[in-house]
Amino acid sequence: MNNKKLKPNNRAQYLLKILIQKYIADGTPIGSRTLLEDSGLNLSPATIRHVMSDLENHGLIKAPHTSSGRIPTARGYRMFVDTLVRYQKPDIGSIDEIQSELTSEKYESGELIDTVSNTLSRITSLAGIVRVPKGKKTTLRQIEFLPLSDNRILTILVLNNKEVQNRILHTRQKHTEAELQKVANYINQNYANRTLSSIRTKLLDDMETTRETMNKAMQDIISTANIAMEVVDNSEDEFILAGERNLMDFAELSNVEKLKQLFDLFSKKRMMIDLLDRSISASGVQIFIGAESGYSMLDDCSIVTAPYKLSDNQVGVLGVIGPKRMAYDRVVPIVDLTAKMLGSVVDEV
Q: Which of 117, 116, 193, 139 is nearest to 311 (CA)?
């Protein structure tokens, strides 16, 4: 019979828990003497070695080098997070920091998503990641233009509930402030309070029908405004990553080749979006350990994610990426709390 299909007894599970906690804390393979000392059990060294051998036969721990101690396998971590770990309530300091960063003012200014990824990274010392909400229908409230140097204009878009986004774009020719104001007035009077996608379609249609009567300056500015709205409207297929450099602090990820593979994955937008979207419909926190992610570049990593819901049925995902040797007992509750608090911030707006 395959031992890997059997569950180790309670004593073996307890020792597995102690071994994993010690390895998470220290990052070095755990020998039988260390495990005996940390367990607090009145057992002989021979008994500890027998239990460790049994855990190895179950595929829960392994020896990374000949004659070394043991470290957890992905299977061992999975048992740990599912049945052995006792998750801690986030400390007051972390709760206060999340509350102070996740404010309705940052939601209205469009800074909230960036703030969430940075806050997660800072509190967990891992890489924080946030998937921009899906199902987002962005409504234009107002548009303004400011002339800059070198045929550039600053396009200011006021969206939804006072959210502000800025885009610097190039025009074919230099435009006066009066010309820019004339186009802003035209768009605000005729297209405000519609979704960006519908405005873009109607603007293009209207430009075709009025091309003969519309001067070239106005056509140029409107075309540029249309590009700005297209960029914002398509931004829902984005994710924000912060604190990637934190991963370099972990010995098991500091190998140059591993780091290169990780950062290469981070640059592949479609892969990262697909990975995060697996948690969109989840009811709570999801933990992907090693190969469970489906990407070989993440075999040495774990990803902890949780969905969050904003107004108007917008759904996104936030989480952290780190080594399999992460402090799950602390990280998982922080990710869960951040997702819930993010949703509550928007409810207050």
A: 139
DSSP 236: G
Task: Report residue 198 as tokens.
Answer: 């519908």
> In the predicted model, what is the mean pLDDT of residues 105-130?
84
Chain centroid, CA 347 distance in Å: 21
Distance CA 334, CA 339 (A): 9
pLDDT tens digits for range 42-78: 999 999 999 999 999 999 999 987 667 999 999 999 9
Sort 59 into a burial class: Cβ within 10 Å, 0-12 / 13-18 / 19+. middle
**DSSP letters spanning 137-206:** --EEEEEEEEE-STTEEEEEEEETTTEEEEEEEE-SS---HHHHHHHHHHHHHHHTTEEHHHHHHHHHHH
Residue pair 314/307 in contact (Cβ under 8 Å)? The answer is no
Domains of the chain: 3-84 (1.10.10.10), 92-136+239-347 (3.30.450.40), 139-235 (3.30.390.60)
Give the Å distances, CA to CA, from 284 to 16, 190, 304. Answer: 26, 43, 11
Whether the per-residue pLDDT at 2 is higher than 90: the answer is no
Residue 323 per-residue DSSP state = E
Residue percentage of the chain with pLDDT more than 70 = 89
pTM for the model stands at 0.73
**Lookup result for tokens 């080594």:** 323
**Residue 88 is inside which H or E element, if any?**
none
Quote the strand ranges of 275-314, DSSP E: 286-289, 301-309
